[in-house]
């Protein structure tokens, strides 16, 4: 075996050091940038992985599997029975008629195959199948309902994070103005044109602005956690969301919105399916007054020591009729009829609830739209008022109280504007959810 040359060893060591030390130093100094996430990507991510959706989908699979279970009574039932018995006896009579004191051992093996077919049950099985199908529809619509809720939660959390980030910018600007006022007050105090109270007042405003900034930054962290939860993430990730917290006006006809909601809401489709299931229960309870007609066929083979083999078969038709069950059938029918009536009334109540949700979201969106226009004017006026107050204070004719009041008014107007934008976006999201949209 040849000995490696010196330059090969040097190259190998150099490569190892670069591989081990270079990336390690880079990873330690550079943190991964936050992932960019649009609203569409956020909703798609939540729809793919949210555990509540997966639970609803599993519930639908289970409900759908109950349909063939209920339909199985239409098909024949085949049973087989295998039995083996061994007996021992002493004494008795021999086969030629003479008595004896001998003993005998007998082994008896029996194999039986039985087929049972339901011929007619006056709608009992059909009602069970219809009920299972309706319940599967309820579960399927539950999947859509849960998806709509997840999308609504994602949109609300997404807009909440945008609003929190906007408020951080507002409080940062407020802190910058307060610090500027403090520097001005100190300058005027040092030259003897303003009293010490102006400096103290400015210091209080700076401290309060810093507290507000701490609160808004913490609100951003809470909003990020809320968004992670809405996305169904088990670990907290930092996302760079797209700033879409802007006003987009749109006109809607309230009557058309109601009609769309009545067509598309999965809750209403669920309620209709529950009515179908309750009606099937009534039919099933009523069919208990009638008999069941079944056909039974069986084949059996018995083998023992003597005779060696015996085959038997039989065909029969049975009519089973429960003539009296302690008034159970009548009480059961009364119960199912009451349940059907309650289910129908629940459907009517749900229609009223859907109508209310649509109208509330529509009114909330219009109200927020009007507040957006009003707050824009308030921000404009507050900025002008602050500019005038700043000029008067710098000229020595204004007071620090007038200046700080103008600053607080501007900050509040900007906060109101952000809140109006957030309310408009969330009201639009609630309207989409009330209409059955995503």
Quaternary structure classification: single chain
Strand content: 5-15%
Unreliable residue runs: 1-32
The overall strand count is 6
Question: Any chance you could write out the topology, listing elements then pairs?
Answer:
Blueprint lengths: L5 H24 L5 E3 L1 H11 L1 H21 L5 E14 L12 E18 L3 H68 L4 H36 L7 E3 L12 H11 L1 H21 L5 E12 L6 E11 L7 H68 L4 H35 L4
Parallel strand pairs: 1-4
Antiparallel strand pairs: 2-3, 3-5, 5-6
Helix pairs in contact: 2-4, 3-4, 4-5, 4-7, 4-9, 6-8, 7-8, 8-9
Structural write-up:
By secondary structure, this protein is an alpha+beta fold. Helix content is 67%, strand content 14%. It has helices at residues 6-29, 39-49, 51-71, 124-191, 196-231, 254-264, 266-286, 328-395, 400-434; strands at residues 35-37, 77-90, 103-120, 239-241, 292-303, 310-320. A hairpin with a 6-residue loop joins strand 5 and strand 6. The radius of gyration is 41 Å and the shape is elongated. The model is unreliable at 1-32 (pLDDT under 50).
Give a nutshell description of this structure:
With 438 residues, the chain is of the alpha+beta class. The protein is built from 9 helices and 6 strands, in the order αβααββααβααββαα. β5 (292-303) and β6 form a beta hairpin.
